[in-house]
Amino acid sequence: MAPKCSFECQCGTMKWHINDGAQGRHVMCYCADCQSEIRHLHQEDSYLKNGGTQIFQTLPSDFVFDDGLDQLALMRLGPKGLLRWYAKCCNTPIANTLPAPTLPFVGVVLPTGHDHFGRISAYANTEAASVKVRQRGVVGAIYSLFFRAAKSALTGTGKNTPFFDANKAPIVEPTVLTLEQREAARP
Question: Other CB atoms closer than 10 Å to residue 86's CB: what's the count?
Fold first, then answer.
């Protein structure tokens, strides 16, 4: 369990936190899509290390927006991609969610070197890393994601999400990158 961890966007307009005791996994994802998101937002220096993005995978019910919600923006790298939430005031990445809240999941994007959640327990999609990195811990990360989601569904907490409205629609309209935008951001 992790103690409460507070975040703010680079300009300080948006603030959010992860609740005390939030269960989750600290992972490093090297996939081309995570890299493309960070590159499109021009945040490589703050959020990429060897092509990897640190993410804390937890439940949406443990994620809270504290201030600046009017600056929340949403993108998709393609029409069927993950929902990638960010602060439009300064292009700070915030989190990734699935396109619908059916499976309760949020991957909170962490700045490079963030160590609040302990050591990184999984290195995923390493074939797109800019240096040689051994993939490990992926099965455990997937298992823990589904275990937390199932437990959340059984207890009813899976319905609590700050990212979707009562009709299961994202609370802001997503912008879908064009093919040209996506390709320009590819590693």
Answer: 25
DSSP 46-96: HH-BTTBEEEEEE-GGGEEEEE-GGGEEEEESSTTSPEEEEETTTTEEEEE
Range of the domain at 167: 5-185
- Reported as a single tens digit per residue, the pLDDT across 123-141 is 999 999 999 999 999 999 9
Residue 148, H or E segment? helix 138-155
What percent of the chain lies above the pLDDT cut of 70? 98
Tokens of residue 8, six digits: 């703010």
Question: CB neighbours of 115 closer than 8 A, spacing ≥ 6?
Answer: none
CB 173 within 8 A of CB 74: yes
Q: How many domains does the chain have?
A: 1
Over 60: is that where the pLDDT of 179 sits?
yes
Looking up residue 170, the CATH number of its domain turns out to be 2.170.150.70
pLDDT digits (tens, 9 = 90+) for 38-53: 999 999 999 999 999 9
| CA atoms of 68 and 55, how far apart (whole Å) | 22
